[in-house]
Amino acid sequence: MLRRANAQDAQVVLELLQQIFTDMELEIMQKYPQQIHNLLEETFREPKVYQNTIVIEKKQQVVGVLIGYPAALEKEINSYYQKLAPKYGLPRNLELFAEESWPDEWYLDSIAVAPAYQGQGLATKLIAALPQFFDVSLVGLNVDFQNQRALRLYQHLGFRIVGTTKIGSHQYHHMQKSIFPND
Fold this sequence. Notes:
Keywords: Acyltransferase, Transferase
InterPro entries: Acyl_CoA_acyltransferase (IPR016181), GNAT_dom (IPR000182), YpeA/RimI_acetyltransf (IPR050680)
Pfam family, one: Acetyltransf_1
GO molecular function, one term: acyltransferase activity, transferring groups other than amino-acyl groups
Oligomer: single chain
Protein name: N-acetyltransferase domain-containing protein
């Protein structure tokens, strides 16, 4: 079952996202893992965050998550993290997430599926559900140069590479796809 996330999903969503955070090797997350976890858990309980999240359930358990937002909200979301950072012993000028989105796109920030459910098409279902939950016509995302499996998946789904960016110490392809109501 696909549904919009709610504040009570915070813990399981963060557990699923931990796979991504580990792969990204962000220095700030390695230096302050518990503080970052606590910050992310609190911010996920904010409606502007969880309302931009879709989860997929199997056997009444969340096993997949997709988080995104309109590019126009990126600065507001990042400033919210920065405002809360000192509460967790983190610098106020915290640069947890770089400017990752491109103008006029709905930015797919993160997508993760529990290891036991990978390879079953759940990520594809989450992406296909975007128009059901959000007013979206152009979706953008970043995929690590080293993650060829994800690159192939996104290309198979119709995303195309439109540029590159660096996040932390990793290079990423920026990919986009136009979404139409009948996609």
